[in-house]
Amino acid sequence: MDSLWFRKFGGTGESASDIVRLFCFPHAGGSASSYTALSRALSPHIDVRAVQYPGRQDRHRETPAGDITELAGRIAERLRDSTETPYAFFGHSMGALVAYETARVLHTWQVPAPVRLFLSGRGAPTAAPNRHDVLPDDRAILTVVRSLGGTSAGVLDDPELREMALPALRADYRALASYRWLSGDPLDLPVTVLTGRDDPVVPVTEAARWSEFTRSSCGLRVFPGDHFYLDPQVAGVAEALMDELRPLARR
User: What's domain 6-124+182-248's architecture?
Assistant: First the structure.
């Protein structure tokens, strides 16, 4: 598996054929390391691989992707030979869209589908841009990121670290602002939607609309917290993922 794109932070005590592999897609401006705590909470039962987008951390010299579907296609290309082991996707915020679009690409290629999509902190897509994604300049981006919080918000208080983070944030918000859902058949795979009860940008009703995008089951789990509910609720989220994934592991 391509170690440039997929990072592993926790060990697994079982053989690869006996576990489900979970690919985790970061939020806007986020990196693979944002899933360190979740990876460790799920080990050794789930083989977690966090996606490292271009343009951040050790890939900071690469040009960040400026288009959601283009990024999804690049990820799918690197996943298509790793779909024999049962696998699932977890995406938070922007990562939920990237995970969903990656699943759509893989579907068109007729490769084995994920056993489940976990879509977190993001409302269902629409044909029009989400008003929270259309930000005019760096100042607006920084204001929104600070207001949403999360473990990475404190990085923006350091001028040097802020300058390093801005290129990825600009590209990600440009990708979000230009994203348009292209009409197509619903995916035929189960979905679990996770969201924070007090998320200021994702009302629970918008998160619940993901049920319209699958022919299979769609569950909704609401956690205490806001947009980055995952940080303080990592143990509860890990338990929710385990509830869905452990029965799917190969016996």
Answer: 3-Layer(aba) Sandwich (3.40)
Give per-residue pLDDT as tens, 126-149.
888 888 999 999 999 999 998 887
Indicate the domain borders of the chain. Answer: 6-124+182-248
CA 82 to chain CA centroid, nearest Å:
18
pLDDT digits (tens, 9 = 90+) for 79-93: 998 888 899 999 999
Distances (CA, A) of 182 to 68, 79, 126, 171: 12, 22, 9, 21
> In which element (H, E) is residue 70 found?
helix 68-79
For residues 156, 158, 161, 164, the Cα torsion angle rounded to the nearest 10 degrees is: 60
Catalytic residue among 34, 43, 93, 152: 93
Task: Indicate if 33 belongs to the active site.
Answer: no
Q: What percent of the chain has pLDDT over 70?
A: 93
